[in-house]
Amino acid sequence: MTLQEKAKLVVGMGFKMPGMPSPAKGEKPKPIDIGGFILPPTDPGAYDIPEKVPGAAGRTHAIPRLGIPSITFSDGPAGLKIDPIRPNDKNTYYATAFPVATLLASSWDTTLVKKVGTAFGNEAHEYGVDIVLAPALNIQRNPLGGRNFEYYSEDPLISGRMTAAMVKGIQSNGVGTSIKHFAANNQETNRMQVNTVVSERAMREIYLKGFEMAVKLAQPWTVMSSYNKINGIYTSERRDLITGILKGEWGFKGFVMTDFMGGRDAIAQMNAGNDWLLPGSPDQSDAIVAAVKAGTLSISQLDANVARILNIILKTPVFKGYKYSNKPDLEGHAKVSRKAASEGMVLLKNEDEALPLASGKRLALFGNTSYDIIAGGTGSGTVNKAYTISLLQGLSNVGYKVQKQLANSYIDYLADAKAKQPKNVPFFIIPSAIPEMDMTGAIDRDADSADAAVITIGRSGGEWADRKVENDFTLTEAEKRLINGVSNAFHAKGKKVVVILNIGGVIETASWRDKVDGILLAWQPGQEAGNAIADVLTGKVNPSGKLATTFPVDYPDVPSAKNFPGRDLPLPPGQTVNPMLGRPAEVNYREGIYVGYRFYDSFRIKPAYEFGYGLSYTKFEPSDVKASSANFTNGITIKVAIKNTGKVAGKEVVQLYLSAPNQTLDKPEQELKGFAKTVLLAPGQSQILAFRLNAADLASFNTNRSAWIADAGDYKVKIGISSRDIAKTVSFKLTKEIVTEKTRRSLTPEFAIDELTDR
């Protein structure tokens, strides 16, 4: 390859705006202005060479003389994101909208998640996509994170195992994945300029651990670096992060790519080992050629970057000449989506067996999203799907009788409100939610004639903006009036009230939960939303979801509440605040390792609903918890029997938490070290589950010694069905410390962090 060919291969073809004409011959491409967001000049080839998959996120340059094809990338945390309607083409190219990651994690079922990934990957394969820019596994550090719906959990073990399962499923089709966003990309506010100030221990134990697990268990084809800085340096320009930790310590074999326009310095990115730049521009290729000639970028480093990209290209469907059909099994995949959605819903409350609701009952359906349900989030997580089943449709499909006058009022109201919404809004602006209408007159009427009430509370979210506390984390005044009015009227008639939470992230529940009889957390369930919710409400599916993120009583209880999303920094001379690029900012992760339940459990703060919590229509009882030894040598096995002691079939998630000695290092009260979901157990049926703990599971990161160390002392294994519902405890002893891994000091903060401790 020539130097120029290498410099093109490591840089994408640029971003082609739909309908934008090609530059005149010999004319230099110009930057693209999208509502004040300036994209770099696009390579002329992006105009001259038609897109193989319209609506895809990016392409590499082909090198025809060497038989190197262009490979295609598509967005898609919850389903493939491509154009469904194309000019002069009568066919459609819809993709399946699967449940969001937070719901999938709530299933605690890696086998199920792999099945979703397999269906997802088939659509990529049959639509001509080579690499899917998914899954995303950033930690849900704060409930206001705008993209929390794309992320699995507040816990790195769940995040890592769910990601590995998804990657294995997608890549089983012979297409690749790009796990993202590497790393500490835990907010949308100022995401392209924010400096994350975080300790090396918190990085390694919380924010990197899931990525490490995914790499070692599943070897994704690519890893996407994040927008933010870590301790003063953009992640895509940090050699200690990308080459040292990811490629060196973990043995990552694929290539690293930037997020869209991530980082600032192409040469620093190449030197860091960030192999490919998205979307790419001719200026970056020219700079790389110049840097090699000037000696600021070695040809050996560029060759290493190129080699990693080529090794992945050799695996792709396009290189192998696969003739994609454009006809994936959308009907079959919809069934996968529906099953996954119902398996990940969490029953938060079920007073006096308010659920399941007998089929055929007459229901009064309140709340905007009962009729306009939210299938998933916005931004790159959007899926262009053929349909979404509303709750109204889903309930009607299984035989419930829905109050027609009430339904028609909502349908007319929503149609009118949507017609009045602003048109041609920039894609990075999240539309405002339609307020709940005043239902004062209708409530009493429907309390007389309906058998029960169902209220749906909806929340959306997405890229470019974090959520707010008022009227987002908390209910709006209209929503409070709705819950109060419906509950008072229906309870006065001796009738039940059930709330469906159609949300992408955590909201406040403690102030209103006692007013209703049942609460089903449906998350954002994908295109089969209404059908999946109906499956749970009827009892066709016994809810078995468990929270993979804590619901606090109030926002000030959140450990990062005072440090999210950080503080603005002064603008450099001549710079203005851009709606997408944001401004320079800094966020300090003072909570350190105390994220989520690690904080609530260690500091004895009672949540509204704890990590791992979730009810069922039946009861389960763990018993016969046994450790293979009272002393740890090369590992230890924990076995537990779990029995369905209730009246209907169901599944249970058994969770293993470990409390470690903390004489030498501050440690959380307990940490999740294992989990398993049973098969569908009939009443009276039992299953024995086994968990294996290795030395690495016992270890914490000691920054002063640059090592993972399992301290000598007594360890407690806690078996439970949530972090606060521990049924059995067994202990074992480690007589001598074990250094499980030595590392190099990395990601050093620029200044000392006053981290939270439990000492």
Structural summary, described in words:
The structure is a single chain. The chain is an alpha/beta fold and 759 residues long. Helix content is 27%, strand content 19%. The chain is built from 21 helices and 29 strands. The strands form seven sheets. It has a six-stranded mixed beta sheet with strand order 3-4-5-6-8-11. A hairpin with a 5-residue loop joins strand 27 (713-720) and strand 28. Helix 4 (110-126) packs antiparallel against helix 13. The longest helix has 17 residues, at 110-126. It starts with a helix and ends in a 17-residue tail after the last strand. The model has no long low-confidence stretch (mean pLDDT 95).
Top keywords for this entry?
6-stranded mixed sheet, alpha/beta, globular, 759 residues, 21 helices
The structure class reads alpha/beta
Reported for the largest beta sheet, the result is:
6 strands, mixed
Estimated radius of gyration: 26 Å
What is the residue-averaged pLDDT?
95
Q: Total strand count, please?
A: 29
Shape: globular
* Percent of residues in β-strands: 15-25%
Regions with little confidence, pLDDT below 50 for 5+ residues = none
Overall helicity: 25-40%
Strand order of the largest sheet: 3-4-5-6-8-11
Oligomer: single chain
Q: Provide a count of the helices.
A: 21
Give the end-to-end Cα distance, rounded to a whole number of Å: 59 Å
What is the gist of this entry?
With 759 residues, the protein is an alpha/beta fold. 27% of the residues lie in helices and 19% in strands. The model has no long low-confidence stretch (mean pLDDT 95).
